[in-house]
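Tutorial, part two.
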Amino acid sequence: MSEKKLLVVRNAVTIGVILGLGILLCVFVWVTTPRDRNSGELLEVENVAGTDSVEPADGLVPTEDDDAKAEDFLEVNDTVTAKDLTNLRSEPTMGDNIVSQLLNGETLTRTGVNESTGWSCLEWNGQTVYAVSEYLTTDLDYKPVVGPTNRNFFLTADHNVVVFRDCDDVVTPKEYVNLRTEPSTSQGDTTVRAHLEAGEQVHRTGYSPDSGWSRVEHNGEVLYVVSSYVVLVEETGTSKQ
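Running the prediction step on this input gives:
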């Protein structure tokens, strides 16, 4: 075969391969393009399953749930305090969303109430937070009621939690001691309610081995004394701890 004929054959083969690839490509596009099964017309595809949706440039679009949550709160303007230590949350749900806590005596402005769910909407440090309405009160002079479920946990004014163990004995001071309204000296003499001399007896109902404080009853009040300053009446010179 002459060189001229060989060149013609090669060109023909090349053209044939190109045409074949083109046909295969057209078939692939036809098969993979969504179409109406009856008419064969192309379908407009906005978000094909399996692909990631694109967020708008200006942020998240409010959902129906968000709108409903805002509408569910009845607008109010109250000053409230906590009945006891109360969690402030970033959302009106229980979970890992606590941003701070509100103490009894501290106040916040309540801007909304959801009576059906029992949540309140509050302003805190320039942001919106939520708390259980039952744990809040508009009575700014409200004092926590000490009951059998929480008397062994005391939150002091300097935000320390003192945990007591129950006991039932009688103690007397080694020397002169102060009886205080909380198991802490951080507030100085403002928490001193009474004094005891050596030989005077009080009923002790609890002690904290970690903090070194004892809980006693004196003239109808629950007060606190440093454990190392008192001894058991039955075993003079020794302490409960």
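Confidence is low (pLDDT under 50) at residues 34-68, 236-241. In part three we will examine how such features are distributed along the chain.
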